[in-house]
Amino acid sequence: MSQSIKGFSKLSKEAKLEWLAQTHFERPEAALDLLKSYWHPDASVQKRHDEFIENTVSNYYLPFGVAPNFLINGKTYVLPMAIEESSVVAAASKSAAFWLERGGFKTEVISTTKIGHVHFIHWGDAQRLHSVVEEHQERFYAATEHITANMRARGGGIVSIELVDRSADEPGYFQLEARFETIDSMGANFINSCLESFAQTLREIVVEAPAASEADREVQVVMSILSNYTPECVVRAEVECAVAELNEGGGMDPVEFAEKFARAVRIAEIEPYRATTHNKGIFNGIDAVVIATGNDFRAVEAAGHAYAARSGCYTSLTHCAVENGRFRFWIEIPLALGTVGGLTALHPMVQWAHELLGHPNARELMQIVAVSGLAQNFAALRALTTTGIQKGHMKMHLLNILNQLEATEAEKAEIVAWFADKVVVHAEVVRRFCELRDIPVPAPKVTRN
Ligand code: HMG
After folding, report:
1. Is 86 close to ligand 1, i.e. is its CB under 6 Å away?
2. Of 36, 195, 404, 434, which is most buried by a Cβ count within 10 Å?
């Protein structure tokens, strides 16, 4: 039934919808109605959303939740979280409340430098190339003055430009490696504009400088692009308390809990299978706040995972120490975030999220986001090392199961009450639901491969 099409991007929105509905859906009217039911009632808001990306046909809702009681460096915050997974917001909130009574989170921005490269090939004399780049440093800065003027006025700009010889790994391969300070912007467009200018300047200075051969005068620019790996844009967040204060509520002795918790972190430090899930739990918190505040979660995730593997072995992003009766738990993570530009200036919900946080600058947002990851990891490890994850997670997921079953509000209330003191298991929910409706429990569906 489906088919390909040329010139789809040039069609009007209505024509796109019509083509999709007629060619891909058994009930075209129903398909159109569903898409349109997700349009914003205010046409100007919808137009703004349409223009964020290309070929927009509707909106895709994510729940937008809040987690209160985050005490960070003595200031309390309510964190905005956009995420589809149940129990994440509850877990963050529970962690926040726990640490609120134990001094809160302490954070520190370690560095804020971002990096980008002009990747190029050069077959000439490497020593001459080195000298040319060194001698003409000011040309790179001068050629980008119009791009960097505003950033310099804010205290940022280009930090350094260096030649890196990578020809031992790939014949002829060199880089211009540049460092940038982008203050409150994530800086991707600024950095890429500077890099494209550097590439042009590089071509010019290599041609102009005295040369012994034709090869000396040639550079083949492969690409000019920022790196989303930002190991020099790093933030640290930490919690600390006396071990005796770790009365986690599940009845476990605080010393036993601290040791078991620290062991769970050590397992993530040495075992990549566990580290991946452990870090996924950290990103439950980080991504939710990053999305709510209009930042690029793909860039943040890519940097976080690369950083977790920087020793050559993928490991935990959080660490824990239990020493001299004290429990310490911390995260160190690269976070390249912006509080100006991009979606922050365009998406009404993003603007709301920034106001909720008190209009943080990029450094403050880095600290808030790192805390969301640490808090999330604390909640998950606390559950994993005490009750098991399913008890709390499935308690939150129960409504999703009941909604899948199309339970009425009265049925939901009754089943939620039934599971109040039981661990929720999918099959048990279905059984209880069928019992309540007095219908047979359906046989399990078999899917063919
Ligand atoms: P609980 O103790 O049953 O909750 O925990 P409670 O009903 O006693 O409430 C305590 C507090 O939790 C509340 O305080 C809230 O802060 C929060 P209050 O507001 O009443 O003063 N809370 C809620 N907040 C909002 N809505 C709710 C709600 N319920 C509790 N409905 C909880 C229940 C789920 C919080 C706990 O069991 C928990 O933290 N579990 C961990 C859940 C988790 O990590 N979920 C992430 C998804 S699982 C995953 O993907 C990651 C993982 O694989 C990572 C890894 O392996 O490391 C686990």
Report:
1. no
2. 195
Catalytic residue flag (residue 393): yes
Look up 280 and say whether it is catalytic.
yes
The catalytically annotated residue of 16, 18, 49, 85 is: 85
292-351 residue pLDDT tens: 999 999 999 999 999 999 999 999 999 999 999 999 999 999 999 999 988 888 999 999
Out of 78, 88, 93, 280, give the residue to mutate to test ligand 1, the one with the largest number of ligand atoms within 8 Å of its CB: 93
Is 85 in the active site? yes
Tell me the pairing of strands 318-323 and 326-334.
antiparallel
Give the residue from 418, 391, 389, 421 showing the smallest Cα distance to 402.
Answer: 418
Q: What is the largest CA-CA distance in the chain?
A: 91
Residue minimizing CA distance to atom 20 of ligand 1: 94
Assess whether pLDDT exceeds 60 at residue 127: yes
Report d(CA 374, CA 281) in Å as an integer.
9
Model confidence pLDDT, tens digit, residues 15-66? 999 999 999 999 999 999 999 999 999 999 999 999 999 999 999 999 999 9
Residue 397 known to be catalytic: no
Give CA–CA dist 231/335, Å, rounded. 9
Query: Residues 216, 296, 347, 364: which is the catalytic one?
Result: 296
Residue bearing tokens 């492969």: 222
- The confidence band for 2, taking pLDDT boundaries of 50, 70 and 90, is low
